[in-house]
From TrEMBL:
Name of the featured protein: Transcriptional regulator
Signal peptide limits: none
Keywords for this protein: DNA-binding, Transcription, Transcription regulation
UniProt cross-references to Pfam families, sorted A to Z: Penicillinase_R
Family: Belongs to the BlaI transcriptional regulatory family.
């Protein structure tokens, strides 16, 4: 009877991006793709890490600076900033912004709605000052 080797589970693009971003956030400063590859474990090829970082750069999630012949990468914002960027991107892609926002607000639980109203009140006060 032949022995069957189980192939490792293939991770989705979003999962890999989150893994790479998490590694970058752990860095003390800008990090190379090689450092990221070591941090996430040896199962990701260097070229895969470069591809993921390049996609994240295109999404505005990371920045890079030239260091010698390669690049050092830095997260552009924290997790909350990235989530907010995704929300704005979805909102910008819709025709009826008012309907999308209204649907979003009516779907909030009472605590989140109170939090949002408080944040909106704060931003109005900052503009008036």
């Amino acid at each position: 009877m032949a022995e069957h080797r189980q192939r490792p589970r293939r991770r989705g693009q979003g999962e890999l991006e989150a893994l790479v971003l998490s590694a970058l956030r752990e860095a003390d400063g800008p990090a190379t793709a090689g450092w990221v590859q070591e941090r996430v474990g040896g199962d990701l090829a260097y070229t895969t890490v470069i591809t993921i970082l390049t996609r994240l750069l295109g999404k505005g999630a990371v920045t890079r600076e030239r260091v010698g012949r390669s690049f050092a990468w830095t997260p552009a914002s924290d997790q909350a900033g990235l989530a907010a960027r995704k929300m704005r991107k979805v909102l910008d892609s819709e025709r009826d912004r008012e309907a999308v926002l209204a649907s979003f607000v009516t779907g909030l639980d009472p605590d989140d709605e109170r939090l949002l109203r408080g944040l909106l009140g704060q931003s109005r006060n900052e503009v008036e000052d």
